[in-house]
Amino acid sequence: MPSLLHHPLDPSSRLVRLMCAEYGVPLDMEEIKPWLREAELLEINPAATLPVLIGDSDTPIVGLLASIHTIEDLYTPSAVEGLIPAEPGQRAEMWRLIEWVIFKLNDEVTRYVLEEKIVKRDQRGATPDPAVLRVAKANLNEHMLYFNWLFATRAWLAGDTMTLADFALAAHLSTLDYLGDIDWGKAGETRDWYSRIKSRPAFRTLLNDRVVAMPPQRGYADLDF
Amino acid sequence: MPSLLHHPLDPSSRLVRLMCAEYGVPLDMEEIKPWLREAELLEINPAATLPVLIGDSDTPIVGLLASIHTIEDLYTPSAVEGLIPAEPGQRAEMWRLIEWVIFKLNDEVTRYVLEEKIVKRDQRGATPDPAVLRVAKANLNEHMLYFNWLFATRAWLAGDTMTLADFALAAHLSTLDYLGDIDWGKAGETRDWYSRIKSRPAFRTLLNDRVVAMPPQRGYADLDF
Lengths: 225, 225
Prior knowledge:
The structure is a homodimer.
Chain A (H helix, E strand, L loop, with lengths): L2 E4 L4 H12 L5 E4 L7 H6 L7 E3 L6 E2 L1 H12 L12 H30 L12 H22 L12 H15 L9 H11 L5 H4 L18
Parallel strand pairs in A: 1-2
Antiparallel strand pairs in A: 1-3, 3-4
């Protein structure tokens, strides 16, 4: 069974977990706090990032892009429609939105929320900076407007079928949701989409996540949130 | 002929240009300053990022990941060995290092240098912040040590053959080199590698780049730098 070095609230780890769950690949999970830069992680990945997938070969698969491509190559079950569309235009639209989520949304929202609310818990005397969290929240509102606009004209993020781009967005939004940073009352079309993707069996693994001394917001695991 | 919305010093645009040149795909080039957020770009790409590849289909290919995958799918000539290795382990190592370059090196070095030295030229009264540039330079030194360490044991960034990871790194280092931010005297093994990749025909297009009122550092286009 492949094992995954991950952190429960790391969105890249969550994306890989969703992908594996959808493809029916069981994972041995090992929790890591990458910001502690422990030797165990640095030896495998000097970038000190997650996820790291340890498969059948001796060489670990390091990082999000390598993991996505390896899982797609090795583990897509032939019986299931894959998460990467065959039609070139749809595939390009999927990569555009994956890039949006893993670069832009991460850069403007998720990384700040995680730094302030999670990483700082391990730094003696550090407390979340409300000014940073305010900027992240304002940025998130702009992103939600764009996602609402997309979901007003399409069933899934990159078009009419569910793709890896949906899992990328779900990975980030579920982390922000755990931490209570999403106002679902104002989330419009994105709420309907999230409700659909949250009900998928692949999502169950994420809904059981708990971070020590930081329980999720009340509706986190609720399918009727 | 496909056309490319690009900026001469944008590393993601440079990566796509190198890839197309290597595969023998001619490009119509249209220069854009993405930080001005002009309507022409925003209509195509609300993220206001480059590159945007406009191919035969009506729909533009937006962003680095979508462009890479589209070029690989549509334009790899059958006569040439592709830039993405067939062997799964080598391919995972290539993606690991592409991610290193486009996330980590960009995030810790290139984006700051571009912001301070290029973007600020278009902001009335703004000048480069020496403190930011000092941090970027210190970060670059750490990255160069890692690249030197890799190149001490392998001919190319991801292994024994040249891959897209080499082009990713060359795209970033060539931008930094244009701006005079690389001390080649201290660059060790990375200098030897850069000398090899700079001599490739695919590189010529980059060496002719000029930004208005900001000529490249003296050795930029020199193959014997």
